[in-house]
Structures are given as structure tokens and as C-alpha cells.
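Data deposition worksheet. Section B asks for the primary sequence of the deposited chain exactly as it was used as input, without tags or linkers unless they were present during the calculation. Section C holds the resulting structure in C-alpha cell form. Section D is free text for depositor observations; keep each observation to a single sentence. Incomplete worksheets are returned to the depositor.
Section A, Depositor: J.P.
Section B:
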Amino acid sequence: MSTRARRRSLRGDAEAQPAPLSFEVRPAKREEAIPVALAAVVFGFIALLVCMSRNYLLLYGDAVAHLGIARRILDTRNPGLIQLGGVWLPLPHLLMVPFVQKMDWWQNGLAGTWPSLLFYVLSCAGIYRLARRVMPPQWALIATAFYGLNPNLLYLSTTAMTEPLFLAIVIWTTLLTMECAAAIKASRALAVTGRLVALGLLVMAAVFTRYDGWIFGAAVWCVITWKLFLAKDFRSRVTTGFAIFTLLTIAGPIAWLAYNQYFFHDPLDFMRGPYSAVAIDRRTTPPGSRHYLGWHDPLGSAILYLRTSQLDASIWETGFAVTAMAVAGMVIAIRRRLELASLLLWFPLPFYIYSIAFGSVPIFIPPFWPHSYYNSRYGMEMLPAFAIFAALFLGWLQQLWSARQPVLVRLMTPVALLLIAINTVAMMHGLPLVLKEAQANSITRIAFEQAIANELKSFPAGVPILMYNSDHVGALQHAGIPLKQTLSETDYDTWKVALAAPSEHAAYVVAIENDPVAKAVKEHPEGLTELAVLCTTGQSCARVYKSSHF
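Section C:
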């Protein structure tokens, strides 16, 4: 064979062989996350169309309450920051204020959808960038798909719930912590200072979103402090940035303690007040009854929380495999020292083990007694850790087998994408756990609030209504009645005066059994005529009265 023929043959053989797989791990450029964000926008709006067509947006009573709090900041007889209340943290409500003042968006729930969808998109872009720092591009895409196509997350991203916002904060805070650690190692003072300030703002946002964020923020501060402690010759160059970061980290908790002290005369009102988790647990647990699974039992609470996280992440029993791969991926990350700041994604596990065991935070899921639904969405906080570390393990496995099993190795990525698609479709077909909980717990509440709303719509426009708003603000939402039209607990002065003489201050009175208005009507019934009694299964009865003074 001639030399020219031999070269042509070798060239043909080379062209016939597939290009070798890339296992390069490097940070993604900002523009590389744009296609991910655009895909998240598409999936988010598809989820919105599906959920709106089925009236899913307001199934959660907490979503209705969040919208009510945001609405009353401006729409009440006593507008202002006092309307934020003292238990739920304020950032989610403040973000909804610009949208919830539009009556239609308050009524149909879209006021809470827009912020949630935005943070869903940001979290998808963030988790892709985070994944690119610890694994090859193909597996970063797998991790992002597993996270972004989760039906529970897609549903929550159409509601006024706080999970999409908090997950976005956690993901971006973890990402910036990783970037800050890398900049410290490279002695890039300007980059470190910028990220320290950004981290301080994100930690403050986490603190003002969920109480989990207080522990998470403390963990982030400890990681950065340790990194700077090790960089002895460098830390003096970023003293100002670290001081700002520290001040912002502690400013959030101090501000919330001061807020509770100023408005409720107890800095720990959110922990021990009448609406705290402890107080609610005491009211809802009959004396001598069996306590919830995991109560004063850290091992039981760990099993419960992990099982909840598995059911939130994947279909049927596949959650055990996802958990096993994620744990294996965590071990690989630790042994290889791959961006150890990424371990911050595991913080929900110890937090919820403690909260379930000792913090009066019950979780009910069908596999365990009492075989019902409550707080199953808390398991969603493990989704980023499952996505990142399970994909990290699979990427390590692919690299390990690359020389011995080339065909299998090439099939791993498309098979993983196919399994994610199957998981998504299967979870949607059987209804995701978080949506099942919302449906199961909303049936009697929605029927009750709709019945009250029908009565409210029959009232003349603009007349004053005496009604306790904290428990069933959804009735006013359904009826489209501005909150400032009501005499309620949102304005202490007019509320107390109205309770002392209901018929003299309100044209109509809505009294729900055992609430403050019902007690006031019982003590001061003069001038009131009963118009209707509204009762639905699983709810207290409401009585509607008309005043003879109007």
C-alpha cells in the first residue's frame, strides 16, 4: 500500500471513531446559563397554564395567608410594616406587595405567582452554574434537569409559597460562597470583596425568608471566616468587605428581634407567641394523645425527613436510589476536596431533624402514621443536594468506566435524561406529593370560604364589615372586598371599639365559631339580626348578622 493510501485509510479510521468524551470541569461563563434560564421560563409558564386551568394556585391555605398579609400592608385601616405580623418572616410578603394591590391578581393568586416564577428561573440558572464548578457540562445539565423538571417545584413556583424564593437564595448563596473561596485561594482581593458584600445581602435575604435561613447564614459565615483564617497573608486586604459581610449577616436577626419587641413587646414572640409553632402544636394536640412521628426522636425524625425528601424528589421507591447516589457523591466530593462549600446544600437535613424532634414541626406523609398530609413541602429543600451530588456520583462513575466500557459510558447521559423525563411524567400522572397535600387539606376550607364570600357579595358596596381576618381572609379574597372595608384585628384601636359594640360600628358582622367576633356577639347581641348560618364539613360554623343601626 502506498504512503498516500495508508494516510487516507488512517484518516478514515479516525473520522469513523466518535470524539472522546470531555470530563473537563470549569466554572461556566455567565452567558452559558442564559439557555438554561430561557428553558426554565418556558417550563415555568407551561406549569402556570396547567395550574391556572385547574385552579391550583390558591389550594394552600398558607398561600392565601401570604397574599393576605402582603395585601394588608397597604390595604387596611392601619397600613404599614406592623401588618407584616410577627411569625412569618417579611421578605416574601414585601416582594408580593407591588402585585397584590391589583384586585384580579389577588383574587386569582397571580400576585404570588410572578415572584415565585422569577425565583424558579433564577434557581435553575444558579444550580447550573453551581454544577459546572464540580462536574463536566453534560452532568451539570443532568443535575439542572433533575432539579428544574421536578413537578413539586414547578407547582410551588406558580403559588405564593416561599420555597422557590428560599431555594434560589440557598443555591446562589452556596454558589457565591464557592466563588469567594476560590477567589481567596487565588488572592483576588477585589473579587473577594464584591462577593462578600453580595453574600451578606443574600444571607440577610435568607434570614428574612425562612428561619432555616438563620442557621444557613451562620454556616455560610463560618465557612468564609475559616477560609480567611487560613489565608493569613491575604485576609488583611479584605477587612472592609468582611466587616460589611459580618454586619449584614447579624443585621437580619437583630432587626427581626427588634421588630418583634417594638410591635409585640417580646423579641421572641415568633418563638413563643400565640401564633408560634410551639403554640400551634399545643392547641392542635389533644391532651394525652399520641404525638407525631419523630417527636423527641432524632433518628425517627431523620427517617421521616429523608423519606419526605425522597417522595418530593422522585416517583415511587426510586428516591432511595437518588439518596444513595447523592450520599455517594458527597463522599466523593469530600475525598477529592471538590468545592467543599457545596456541602452547604446539605444543611436542611440536620436543621429539620432537630426541628421535627425538638422544634414542634410535624411532617405527615402517607407512608407513616397518621397517613395524612402536612408540611410535605419541607422536603423540597433537599432537592438541590440530591440533584448536584447524585449527578456528581454518576459523572464520577462515567469517568471511571470511560476506558473499559465505552459504549455504556456514552449511553449514560441520554439514559439519565430519559429517566428524568420518565420521573417527571410519572410524578405528574400520579400528582406530586406537595400538590396532593394542597388538594387534601383545601377541600373543606375552600368550600367554607366560598360560602362566606357568596354572602359578602350580597352586601351593599362599601359598607363596614366586622370580621376576624387572620383565619379566613380567603373569603374576602374570593368576594373581592378591600381589607380596609373591614373592621379587623389589623387595626387594634377600631377593632377593640367595634368588639365592644358590634352593631354600632359595623353594618354587617361575620362571626365564626369561637373567634373574637363570635365572642363579642355573644356578649353584645343588641341591635344585630341573624341573616345566615354557614356550616361545611370539617369547619366551624359562621353566622352572618345585620346591624339595625345602618
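Section D:
The first strand starts at residue 465 and ends at 467.
DSSP finds 24 helices and five strands in the chain.
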